[in-house]
Amino acid sequence: MSDRGTMVRAESLVKGYGEGATRVDVIAGLDLEVPTGEMLAVVGPSGVGKSTLLHLLGLLDRPDGGSVTIDGVAVDELDSSARAGMRNRTMGFVFQHHNLLDELDALDNVALPLRIAGEGPRRARERGLELLASVGLSDRTSHYPDQLSGGEQQRVSVARALAMRPKLLLADEPTGNLDRDNAERLFALVGQLHLKASLTSIIVTHNEEMARRCDRIFRLAPRAELSE
Amino acid sequence: MGLGAELHVASRFLIGTRRWTSVVTVTLISLLGLGVGVFALVVTLALLDGFQSGIRSQIEVQAAHAEVRPVEGRRLADPEELALVLQGSLTDVEIVQVVRGIALVSSDTDAVPASVVGRSDTDRVAVDRVLARRLSLGAGATLDLISARQRLTPMGPLPVRVRAQVSRIVDPRPGTEGGSVILPLDRAQRLLWGEEVIGAIELRDPVGPWTVGRRAREVLGADRGAVEVAGLQELHRPLLTALALEKVMIFVAVGLMLVVAALNLLCNVAMVAAQKRKDLAVMAGLGFDPSSLRRLFVLLGLIIGAAGSLLGAGLGSAVAVVLDRTGLLELPQGVFVVAAVPFRVDPATVGMVVAVALGLAAVAAWLPARMVARREPSEGLRYE
User: Could you give the C-alpha distances from B185 to B69, B200, B239, in angstroms and in order?
Assistant: First the structure.
């Protein structure tokens, strides 16, 4: 872990669902700081708000209260377009279910963030090929998601997350759907890429063993009883 | 950002799949719906254009292309001078002096009132088909024309009567559906006025029938005095207005099919939006902003609309051309001037139909697109 400053800062974060008497605050008054270059594991039981936290930090949702700062930018004030631009340029996502687009082959899936950023098809595909090679899938470029194994799908997903050379990698149970061997391989790959690409990574996981291999563990407890 | 990413994803959604999914099914249904609507509109308008162009051709062939006539009354003040001025400038235009009126036309079997037209370009008597049928006349028959004008005789005032032998039967001129007799100018003048009166000067320009009126106005200048010039548009305004109105009404009525097809497209795009909720959330996560997602869905609608429109327009035009050339749809002889249902494919009309279909498709896709763009990305991910 380096000490080059803070990549993510969340202060007094609140997020709930429902209205009135049925409202449930999943996250209530959460504070979190993730230094640049850190690999942070977020653990906790199901329903405690791990994914919600990741969505808030990844600008996929807006908090009901509190503030989020990413790479020095107070993101709460940004409009939807600016938030989308920040997701595209600054962040990479890996979800529990690979969430690749079924209609695109592996290469097109990986190249999609670059196409969204306005990159031409040729350069996007070149970068996609390079990324697929880096996750050991050079021979699967024209395979569609349903022609890939679960482990391969997640590796494509990791490659896609790194397409725009992000500063922040957000992974939500990346190994949740994989068998032990594949989970091991994928976690090792993420760790390797984290160092190689000088990323700040926040990884939500149920797997304590993998969480211990991260720089730090952030535990979420029911009713926001937080501990580190 | 250009449309590269949106177009790429939209086209892959529609044609990129390797399996027969519900997206493919609803896409084909929407495409066929629009295609059928455009097909129906193109064929119907080609049919209408076919009939209307026949009527316009008939007007061009049989009627005057312009007319110089008095602003008030039924006689021109100085027809010779006017004719000389027009002839001097419009050398390629046929100029005919005419006089018109009503007379009682009597044959051996019956007597009916009819239009009488005296023309300087004929020395024979002609009767149109409508009057010939009504009075059972044929070439060579004799008829009496009795004018409302009277002359004083030793027996008191008597109506003026002219006896004429029919030389030929002609097609009725547009606007003389009640029947008409065409006489040499001098005989018509004797019947209707008893002196050399010219009621109007007709102009015919086979090269530019729809513009000769404007040219005549230019020749006569602003200071035309007591005469006015009516071009083809003015001479047949009620008929031409009715034809234009008919086309608009048919377009609107048959165009409702396109509206129904567009509503079907709206439902289908909304269905795709619901099915692709997770994918849309992922794309938002990757950096698609709300306006990009909106564009993506409008593009989906436009691609379906373009494919359906082109399919319908192509097929409709081909069917219309084939039916016109082969004359497959025959018409009863004697009722219509033409032997088979005429079709005329006007590229401008087809283009307008395609443009309307594309516009409706864009609007239909816009509504679900708005809905998609309003969602937070996490909604799609949370419910996966």
Answer: 16, 12, 28
Which residues in chain A are contacts of B9 at CB distance < 8 A?
Answer: 101, 103-104, 112
Contact of B374 with chain A, judged by CB distance below 8 Å, is answered with no
Sign of the Cα pseudo-torsion (B205, B207, B209, B210, in order)? negative
Tokens read off for B361: 């498709």
Closest residue in chain A to residue B276, using alpha carbons only: A101
Q: Which residue has the higher pLDDT, B379 or B189?
A: B189
Question: What is residue A228's predicted lDDT score, i.e. its pLDDT?
Answer: 46
Mean pLDDT by 10 residues, chain A (228 residues): 74 87 84 93 87 91 92 90 92 84 92 92 92 90 90 91 92 83 84 88 89 91 56
Tell me how far apart the alpha carbons of residues B154 and B156 are, in angstroms, rounded to a whole number: 5
Question: How far A102 CA sits from the closest chain B CA (Å)?
Answer: 8
Annotate B106-135 with b (16+ C-beta within 10 A) or e (fewer). Answer: bbeeeeeebbbbbbbebeebbbbebbbebb
Q: Is the pLDDT of residue B1 over 50?
A: no
Residue A225, pLDDT score:
47
CA B234, distance to chain mean position in Å, is 16
Tens digit of each residue's pLDDT (9 = 90 or more) over A208-225:
888 998 999 999 887 644
d(CA A190, CA A203): 10
- Flag whether pLDDT at B377 surpasses 90: no
Q: Which residues of A touch B287 (CB under 8 A)?
A: 84-85, 87-89, 113, 116-117, 164
Neighbours of B138 (CB within 10 A): 11
Burial B333-349 (b: 16+ CB within 10 A, else e): eeeeeeebbbbbbbeeb
In whole angstroms, give the CA distance from residue B228 to residue B237: 16
ipTM: 0.86
How far is CA A141 from its chain centroid? 23
| DSSP letter for each residue of chain A | ---S-EEEEEEEEEEEESSGGG-EEEEEEEEEEEETT-EEEEE--TTSSHHHHHHHHTTSS--SEEEEEETTEEGGG--HHHHHHHHHHHEEEE-SS----TTS-HHHHHHHHHHHTT--HHHHHHHHHHHHHHTT-GGGTT--GGGS-HHHHHHHHHHHHTTT--SEEEEESTTTTS-HHHHHHHHHHHHHHHHHTT-EEEEE-S-HHHHHTSSEEEE--GGG--B-
Q: What is the DSSP letter of B173?
A: P
Angle (CA) A181 A187 A191, round 5° = 145
pLDDT at A98: 65
Judged by CB atoms closer than 8 Å, whether chains meet at A115 and B282 is answered as no
- Span B333-348, mean pLDDT? 80
CA distance A124 to A138: 15
> Mind spelling out the 3-state secondary structure of A138-175?
HHHCCCCHHHCCHHHHHHHHHHHHCCCCCCEEEEECCC
Which residue in B has a C-alpha nearest to residue A86's C-alpha?
B287
B234: its two tokens: 């003015």
Closest CB to A103: pick one of B17, B286, B384: B17
